[in-house]
Amino acid sequence: MVTEMVGEILRLKREKKAIILAHNYQRGEIQDIADFVGDSLELSKKATEVKCDVIVFCGVHFMAETAAILNPEKIVLLPEIDAGCPMADMIDGEKLKKWASQYPDTPVVSYVNTTAEVKALSYVCCTSANAPEIVKAVPSQRVLFVPDKNLALWAKRKVPQKEIIFWDGFCPTHHMIRREDVMRAKESYPHALVVVHPECRPEVIELADHVASTSGMVRFANKSNAKDYIIGTEEGIIYRLKKENPQKNFYPLKKTMVCPNMKVTTLESVYNALKEMKHVIKVSEEIRIKAKEALDRMFELYHPSNR
């Protein structure tokens, strides 16, 4: 049955001239049918480089919006229309306007894990990989950072000379990890390196051997000579890590690190999206242009070759 479903998805993909993008947190079977697996911005950028008419984004709503912002000439489908992001939902355009009005002439740095509306009101966007570099590059001594306070604190740790005023938002999946969880995992796997996401609390980051975005975790594991790793992010990435490093061991820092929104996408929902061309994600041109300016400014300010 699964084999037949996969076959039908691949047939429809060819017929519709589509590509399938899957976030690192997606189910294993979704990662297996994807043309590209990665983090949200990495995937949206990849879509700009590939000739296709349709983008099927297996992720959450803000990710499909970002793909639509960067690929206005392509149809972007989100297989599960209700797949949202609790952190992105912690701030909207009206809240941002009201908050930012208290700090005149202070540029807004928005995490890509935000709605198109919030991006459009921002000076620049950032990712979990480049937040410190972007904050440092912004031509202002003080910045506003939305929506993740933990990522803001990570940037502050790396760029102490900047004043960062942050919104009180967080990722529920990462924020649930406590210091005692890390200590417990270390006791269970004493020889393992602890690798955590910068969306984690500062008390967790302090105990980590390495802090990285999802794509950064993959690169680190691929290059490292260590055999055992404790992974402090949504458990879906462990599927990719094991697939690319079968000779290494990966353990979830906490077994409850599951994002429900990242797990709603199924083979059936991908099939239905392609078959019916449903759940098209659109961004108004006015918002799209402004949001793209914030994303483009990030690409201008961030130079990964300098890392």
Give the structure's gist in a few sentences.
The chain has helices at 2-16, 28-33, 40-49, 61-70, 93-100, 116-120, 131-137, 149-158, 172-175, 179-188, 202-205, 214-223, 237-244, 267-276, 285-301; strands at residues 18-23, 36-38, 54-58, 75-77, 108-111, 124-126, 142-146, 163-166, 193-196, 210-211, 228-232, 249-252. It is an alpha/beta fold and 307 residues long.
What does this structure look like?
The protein is α/β, with parallel strands linked by helices. The protein folds into 3 domains: 97 residues, 3-Layer(aba) Sandwich (Rossmann fold); 102 residues, NadA-like (Rossmann fold), CATH 3.40.50; 80 residues, 3-Layer(aba) Sandwich (Rossmann fold), CATH 3.40.50.10800. It is built from 15 helices and 12 strands. The strands form 3 sheets. Strands 2-1-3-4 form a 4-stranded parallel β-sheet, sandwiched between helices. Helix 13 links the parallel strand 11 and strand 12. Helix 1 packs parallel to helix 14. The longest helix is centred in the last third of the chain and has 17 residues. The chain is globular, with a radius of gyration of 19 Å.
